[in-house]
């Protein structure tokens, strides 16, 4: 019994080869135990709705765009039928639409899928986004589980077919707020589109208003006369040419709000005005209307402005001007114009009417506005400075000055005359005569105004301190020091009292001509006081000697 068992044991050949599975060879078993390169293949999923096998040997199929799901099951063969295989997508064209899903990845390297491996179309391919003949090429590596990790690569070709997608309007967000106006042509251009390349479209409407027409992608027409604002709601349908005659359509609601015509109107206008004879004047007429009519507004005057030597013209869409000068023959008359504002709309035109009345006044002479304020007395050594102002309706006037003073300077502006100078002691007792003549230069009716006045120069007496010899010059620390100055001016002029030099503890009361304060320390403190009448300054200086007692 032992011999038989030993003989049977010797007939067994136990072969170990690397990581290959242990194979016990029995008589009659011809399986190869040598690792070999696997060859990958795919079993296409026939239940994939749009899949069509074009060439099984070349692993070439065709699917519709926008598809997803399992497209096939991966497999491999080599000389060792009991090998397990791992798969990995090495590359794919036109994006990353495909992925692998395995049921057992434990014996595979990282990034590989094992077990039952499915090729998943995980991202929907768009026909329009693909290049390279609209075909996705997928390179897949297959590896066996031997210690040599034998591998090879096989290629799949998945062609993507275009399917017709529903068209749409790019500007559908504008469909609900279209505006039209009675009697004015309405035009709107639709913007149809879809995802398909080079598709063509047609536009139609089964319930549009009769005044609208469709031509290509444009809808146009003229809203008829109406008594009030109206809304027109209807549907617009876009249809594409489709694939092989299989077309698709999309319908959207469209609304047009039609406003009936409103009359134009004058804005904030005074139609009773006054012009002076022979004076160039301008009168502005301002109007308004619905925006759609602004470019076509017109104004007519009756009688014509030219009948009175005037010009009437348009400045802007809402502004007209009447300009010119009315002759003196129209003085004290009222000139009337019928003013008609029209919107000139083709249907249901509207107008507004007013009467413009221009009262023609005679020319007014120039006016010296502040002549009553002219100074007619000045002290010698004091500055004389006065500006005489002139007003007139004319744009420019002529000013003539007559005066013979050596000390007075005269500066003439277009509407004023400035007199400036300082008389000297030699001028005391003199009286300067001055005459200002202003002419308005109005054609045919020139008016002139004359202002005559004189300036007398007298002696200036400077202001004086009357108690300069009796000023208190002593102070005691901690006790109040105070001094009031006596002042006078023989001319009776107003003057200012100031103390430019003083100790910090001393306070000035200008209206009382007084200084006072409490010394805080011993010492001699200089003080300067002065009076200024605007022409001359009088001052003197003294010291306040402060002691403890």
Structural description of this entry:
By secondary structure, the chain is mainly beta. The chain folds into 5 domains: 39-161, Cadherins (Immunoglobulin-like, Sandwich); 168-259, Immunoglobulin-like (Sandwich), CATH 2.60.40; 265-361, Sandwich (Immunoglobulin-like); 367-458, Immunoglobulins (Immunoglobulin-like, Sandwich); 464-547, Immunoglobulins (Immunoglobulin-like). Strands 4-5-12-11-7-9 form a 6-stranded mixed sheet, with no helix packed on it. The longest helix is centred in the N-terminal third of the chain and has 9 residues, at 2-10. The chain is built from 1 helix and 46 strands. It starts with a helix and ends with a strand.
Topology, please?
Elements: H1 2-10, E1 13-15, E2 23-25, E3 39-44, E4 52-55, E5 60-64, E6 69-77, E7 85-92, E8 98-101, E9 113-114, E10 117-121, E11 135-144, E12 151-161, E13 168-169, E14 178-181, E15 186-189, E16 192-193, E17 201-204, E18 212-215, E19 218-221, E20 230-240, E21 249-259, E22 265-266, E23 272-276, E24 281-288, E25 298-302, E26 311-316, E27 319-324, E28 334-342, E29 351-361, E30 367-368, E31 377-379, E32 384-391, E33 398-402, E34 409-412, E35 416-421, E36 431-439, E37 448-458, E38 464-465, E39 474-476, E40 481-484, E41 487-488, E42 496-501, E43 506-509, E44 514-517, E45 523-532, E46 537-547
Parallel strand pairs: 5-12, 14-21, 23-29, 31-37, 39-46
Antiparallel strand pairs: 1-2, 3-6, 4-5, 6-10, 7-9, 7-11, 8-10, 11-12, 13-16, 15-19, 17-20, 18-19, 20-21, 22-24, 24-27, 25-28, 26-27, 28-29, 30-32, 32-35, 33-36, 34-35, 36-37, 38-41, 40-44, 42-45, 43-44, 45-46
């Amino acid at each position: 019994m032992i011999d038989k068992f030993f003989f049977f044991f010797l007939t067994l050949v136990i072969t170990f080869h690397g990581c290959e599975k242990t194979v016990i060879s029995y008589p009659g078993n011809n399986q190869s135990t040598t690792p070999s390169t696997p060859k990958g293949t795919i079993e296409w999923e026939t239940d994939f709705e749009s899949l069509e096998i074009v060439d099984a040997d070349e692993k070439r199929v065709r699917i519709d765009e926008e598809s997803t799901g399992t497209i096939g099951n991966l497999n491999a063969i080599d000389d060792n039928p009991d090998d397990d295989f791992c798969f990995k997508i090495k590359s794919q064209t036109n994006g990353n639409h495909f992925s692998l899903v395995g049921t057992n990845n434990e014996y595979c390297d990282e990034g590989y899928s094992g077990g039952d491996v499915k090729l998943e179309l995980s991202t929907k391919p768009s026909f329009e986004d693909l290049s390279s003949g609209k075909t996705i090429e997928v390179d897949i590596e297959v590896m066996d589980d031997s210690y040599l990790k034998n591998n090879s690569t096989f290629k799949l070709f998945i062609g993507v077919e275009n399917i017709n997608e529903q068209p749409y309007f790019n500007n559908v967000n504008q469909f609900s707020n279209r505006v039209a106006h009675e009697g004015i042509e309405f035009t709107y251009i639709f913007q149809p589109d879809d995802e398909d390349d080079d598709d063509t479209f047609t536009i139609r409407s089964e319930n549009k208003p009769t005044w609208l027409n469709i031509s290509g992608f444009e809808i146009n027409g003229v809203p008829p006369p109406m008594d009030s604002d109206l809304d027109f709601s209807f549907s617009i349908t876009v249809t594409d040419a489709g694939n092989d005659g299989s077309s698709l359509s999309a319908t959207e609601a469209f609304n047009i709000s039609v406003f009936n015509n409103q009359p134009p109107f004058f804005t904030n206008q005074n139609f009773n005005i006054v012009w002076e004879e022979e004076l160039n004047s301008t009168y502005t007429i301002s109007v308004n209307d619905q925006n759609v009519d602004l470019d076509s507004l017109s104004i007519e005057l009756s009688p014509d402005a030219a009948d009175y030597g005037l010009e009437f013209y348009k400045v802007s869409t809402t502004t007209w001007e009447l300009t010119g000068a009315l002759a003196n023959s129209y003085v004290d008359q009222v000139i009337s114009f019928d003013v008609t504002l029209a919107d000139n709309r083709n249907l249901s035109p509207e107008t507004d009417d007013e009467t413009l009345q221009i009262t023609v006044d005679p020319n007014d002479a120039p006016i010296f506005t502040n002549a009553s304020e002219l100074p007619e007395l000045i002290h010698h050594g004091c500055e004389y400075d006065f500006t005489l102002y002139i007003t007139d309706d004319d744009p420019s006037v002529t000013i003539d000055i007559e005066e013979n003073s050596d000390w007075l300077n005269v500066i003439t502006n277009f509407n004023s005359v400035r007199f400036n100078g300082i008389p000297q002691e030699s001028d005391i007792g003199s009286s300067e005569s001055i005459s200002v003549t202003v002419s308005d230069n109005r054609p045919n009716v020139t008016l002139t105004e004359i202002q005559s006045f004189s300036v007398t120069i007298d002696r200036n007496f400077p202001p004086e301190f009357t108690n300069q010899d009796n000023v208190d010059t002593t102070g005691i620390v901690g006790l109040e020091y105070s001094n009031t100055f006596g002042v006078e001016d023989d001319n009776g002029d107003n003057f200012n009292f100031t103390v430019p030099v003083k100790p910090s503890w001393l306070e000035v009361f200008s209206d009382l001509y007084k200084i006072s304060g409490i010394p805080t320390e011993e010492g001699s403190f200089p003080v300067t006081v002065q009076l200024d009448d605007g022409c001359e300054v009088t001052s003197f200086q003294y010291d306040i000697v402060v002691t403890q007692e």
